[in-house]
Amino acid sequence: MRSTSTVEWRGGGKPLAWRRLNPLPVIATAAVLLAGACVAGAAVWRHHAAQHDDARRMQLTQWQTLATAAADPDALASLRAAAERGEVAAQTALGETLLSRPNASEREQARRWLQRAAATGDARANFVLGKAAFLGDAGGDGGAAVNGKPDHQAAWRHLRAAAEAGHVGAAYYLGLLHRGGYGAQPNPAEAARWFTVAAEGGVAQAMFMLANAYREGSGVARDDDKAVAWYEAAAERDHPESIQALAIAYRHGELGLDPDERNFRFHLVETAHALKHPALKP
């Protein structure tokens, strides 16, 4: 039963009575308001932090472009200063920039910077090291040496790390490693799995490889419809080999398509166009 209190009204008359308020609802309301303010504040902080990160990435990209395309010494110096301060993205950008240089000492510096960034789990650094090792632009331990010899062991290690971290370009190259073996047993199913990851991430070359897998039944069940769908997806991204594959399919009535001379000629013209402006490789 709620209690009431009275006070004497100094001006005379009847005493004033009121109910004592239960403080719990008031406290609860205040707590809700405070929590809401904290959530809103955190959201604002995250928004500003994201904007700052985006601006910083744009700045690093600008420096990298100037240092690579124009050999701008000031841009390179800015990248180096940021890398030495411990910025992982700057370390990767600096390593990638130096990797493009013909000077052996600079490429050795690239190796060290990229390995330093990769050690933190940076997907881009692992991708660059892995791709370089796979293509023969890297030396021991996936570095950036100039001996021109592939290092498949390092390629496997770095590309797997990058692909598992969500880098779709690395997923494509990891698919190539699984498809060809390269120091391991070829695994068509794993190749198709990683080509799928890369294709769904928008990599045209992976779309082409996945289309081939469905066409041949390599690592996946043969499926002409899916093969055509992935060839068409890659063709929309100006991938010459995919457009050519569609042209041949229309010419000979393959992959479940009816022979169609008009479509054959159309895709033949598109192939020539795509060869002038091919899809960028990851």
From TrEMBL:
Keywords: Membrane, Transmembrane, Transmembrane helix. It holds the Pfam family Sel1. It comes from the Bacteria. The chain crosses the membrane at residues 21-45. This is Sel1 repeat family protein. It comes from Cupriavidus gilardii.
